[in-house]
Every structure is written in structure tokens, then in C-alpha cells.
């Protein structure tokens, strides 16, 4: 469960990330679909603004940049190394680095992240190093999942080399990703938590993919196929969300993933099997979605569909999609009809 402060920070970051991504696309000459225009300014709720104005210290990782040289001036993660920082300073540093990654100078940001990854592998034990990289992703210091996965894979290779245990095992990396995904499916109790959970494990999928590229065993192609299916399923979820205006489709999730056959006492069992199979084999929805759906079908589908089967933060989902694969997300936000007619 996220604290009030973490929810406020997430709201601020979602608004900032979408704003910066749209700003870059518009600067490149693209026309955005009307429903995304409200996000062209980083608007946050009044409650978020009040919380972020509090005079408190936070123990979140921070990267301070020297904007003259566009190099790292300082880095720390108070949970592992360093002291807490004021919330206002943390937000200032994060905003600067986010703008550098998304809308200004991605090369400088990437070089800074590579430098930090190298520092972590040299100065920290392996557990602290990987935890720091995870926290940089969690707190949105790394914009896209592919970069986060590459940094993690490189750290694992370096740790493996220093410990003289040979090439890191791609089988173990895939197993870790699948275990995190399996746990997420079983423990998630809301679509917001499902989307957030998918976001958090995105780098682990990319990491497993990069490590598998160096494998030479007979199961390499099988692992590649598993990872590509996971990538495609995640893309399906975000594409459905972003291709539709959630305000016009309040039942977006059930429309997309419920069986097309109308539930009845005669087919409840087959529908449960279908929903359960897709939950286990694919990455479309978590277990609670199956259970809540079946409960509703058993009532004869009377009354409104349970809110939790479709309720999620559209803004956060869009922000996560941008971090999953920036170019793909932006392409879904562009008004291609207007682009072609202009």
C-alpha cells in the first residue's frame, strides 16, 4: 500500500512524464489526439499540491546534475547510502533529470545512469547494488524500461565477473521475472495495483532478454519466445487502454477481456476455465479479476458490473505505457488522421 506522500509524488511524476513526452512529440511536429490535450500541461490535484508543499525529508534516491556540464554532481540513496533530503529539493532534482531524459538531452542522462550503475557495482555489495537500481526505476529516475533492464543486466554481468562465477545464468533471470509475475497475479487486488506491478517488473523482463542474448544452449529460443509473449501481452494491455478514451468506455477492461458468450448457469464452468487459463498463461489480468467476474456471473449478471473490475487511474496507466515503450505509446497518442490530411 502506498503512503499518501508516495501517491502524491506518483501523481506529480505521472503528470510531468506525460507532459514532457507530449511536449517532445509536438516539438517534432506531431498532432496529438484531442483527449490527450489536457495532459499538455503538468496538472496535478489540489490535494497533491498541498502534500508536496510540506516541509519534510524523504529517503528516496536522488541524482543531482551539474547542468553546465550535464554530468552527475551527486548521487545517493538514503536507504543504502547517504542522508534523507528535503522533499522540495528532491522534487527539484527529479524534475531536472526527467526533463533531461525525456525532452532535452537523453544521451547525457543515459551516460549519467551508466556512471551510477558502475558506481553501484564497484562500491556496493551485489544485493544493495541491484536494490538501488530497482529503486531508481521505482521512483522514476529511469524513464524507459529498456534502459532500466540494460543497466540491471550490465550490473549482473559485472557482479558475476567479479565473483568469478562465469556468465550470469539467463535461466535464473527468466525464472525471477516469471516468479515476480506469478506473485503479482495472485496477490493483486485492484487494477491500479496490477498496472503498477507490471510497471515495476518491466526491467526484469528486459534484463532476462539481454542476458539470454549471450546464451548458447538449446533452450535459448524457447526463453526468447516466452519473453516476447510477455512483451506482446503487456503491449496489448496498454494499447487497449490508450487507444480508448476511458471516460467514454467506463467498462473498458471487461469489454476487452470478458468472454464474448453471454454467461448463463450452463456455461459458468467453461467461462471460468477460459478466464483462469488466460490469467495463468497470459498477462491480461490478475486472479482477483477472474474471481470477481465469476461472482458477478453467478448472480445472473444482474445489476451494475462491480466497479473494481474496470476502475483504474488512466493517467498512471498512460505514464507507465510511456515508460514501457516510449515510441509505441506516443504513436497511440498521435492524431494520425489529422496528420495525413494536413
Count of helices? 15
- Count of discrete structural domains: 1
**Helix/strand class:** mainly alpha
Low-confidence stretches: none
Backbone shape? globular
Q: Averaged pLDDT, please?
A: 90
Beta-strand proportion = under 5%
The helix content, as a percent range, equals 55-70%
Radius of gyration from CA coordinates: 21 Å
- Order of strands across the main sheet: 1-4
Written as H for each helix and E for each strand, in order along the chain, the element string is: HHEEEEHHHHHHHHHHHHH
* Total E-strand runs: 4
Largest sheet: 2 strands, antiparallel
Distance between the termini: 47 Å
What report would you give on this structure?
It is built from 15 helices and 4 strands. Strands 1-4 form a two-stranded antiparallel sheet. The protein has a two-stranded antiparallel sheet with strand order 2-3. Helices cover 64% and strands 4% of the residues. The mean pLDDT is 90. By secondary structure, the protein is mainly alpha-helical. It has one domain.
Amino acid at each position: 500500500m502506498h503512503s499518501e506522500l508516495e501517491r502524491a509524488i506518483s501523481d506529480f511524476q505521472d503528470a510531468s512524464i506525460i507532459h514532457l513526452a507530449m511536449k517532445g512529440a509536438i516539438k517534432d511536429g506531431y498532432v496529438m489526439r484531442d483527449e490527450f490535450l489536457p495532459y499538455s500541461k503538468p496538472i496535478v490535484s489540489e490535494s497533491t499540491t498541498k502534500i508536496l508543499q510540506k516541509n519534510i525529508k524523504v529517503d528516496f534516491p536522488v541524482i543531482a546534475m551539474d547542468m553546465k556540464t550535464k554530468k552527475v554532481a551527486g548521487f545517493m540513496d538514503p536507504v543504502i547510502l547517504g542522508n534523507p533530503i528535503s522533499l522540495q529539493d528532491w522534487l527539484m532534482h527529479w524534475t531536472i533529470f526527467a526533463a533531461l531524459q525525456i525532452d532535452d538531452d537523453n544521451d547525457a542522462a543515459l551516460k549519467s545512469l551508466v556512471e551510477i550503475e558502475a558506481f553501484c557495482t564497484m562500491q556496493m555489495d551485489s544485493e544493495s547494488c541491484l536494490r538501488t537500481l530497482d529503486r531508481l526505476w521505482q521512483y522514476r529516475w529511469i524513464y524507459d524500461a529498456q534502459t532500466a533492464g540494460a543497466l540491471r543486466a550490465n550490473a549482473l554481468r559485472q557482479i558475476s565477473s567479479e565473483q568469478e562465477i562465469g556468465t550470469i545464468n539467463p535461466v535464473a533471470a527468466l525464472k525471477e521475472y516469471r516468479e515476480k509475475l506469478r506473485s503479482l497475479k495472485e496477490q493483486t487486488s485492484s487494477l491500479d495495483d496490477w498496472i503498477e506491478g507490471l510497471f515495476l517488473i518491466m526491467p526484469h523482463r528486459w534484463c532476462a532478454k539481454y542476458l539470454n542474448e549471450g546464451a548458447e544452449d538449446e533452450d535459448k529460443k524457447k526463453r526468447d519466445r516466452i519473453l516476447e509473449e510477455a512483451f506482446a501481452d503487456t503491449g496489448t494491455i496498454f494499447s487497449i487502454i490508450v487507444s480508448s478514451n476511458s471516460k467514454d468506455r467506463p467498462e473498458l477492461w471487461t469489454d476487452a477481456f470478458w468472454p464474448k458468450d453471454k454467461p448463463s448457469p450452463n456455461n459458468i464452468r467453461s467461462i471460468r476455465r477460459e478466464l483462469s487459463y488466460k490469467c495463468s498463461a497470459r498477462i491480461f489480468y490478475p486472479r482477483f479479476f477472474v474471481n470477481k467476474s465469476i461472482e458477478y456471473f453467478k448472480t445472473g449478471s444482474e445489476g451494475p458490473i462491480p466497479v473494481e473490475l474496470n476502475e483504474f487511474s488512466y493517467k498512471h496507466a498512460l505514464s507507465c505505457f510511456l515508460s514501457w515503450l516510449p515510441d509505441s505509446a506516443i504513436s497511440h497518442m498521435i492524431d494520425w488522421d489529422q496528420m495525413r490530411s494536413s
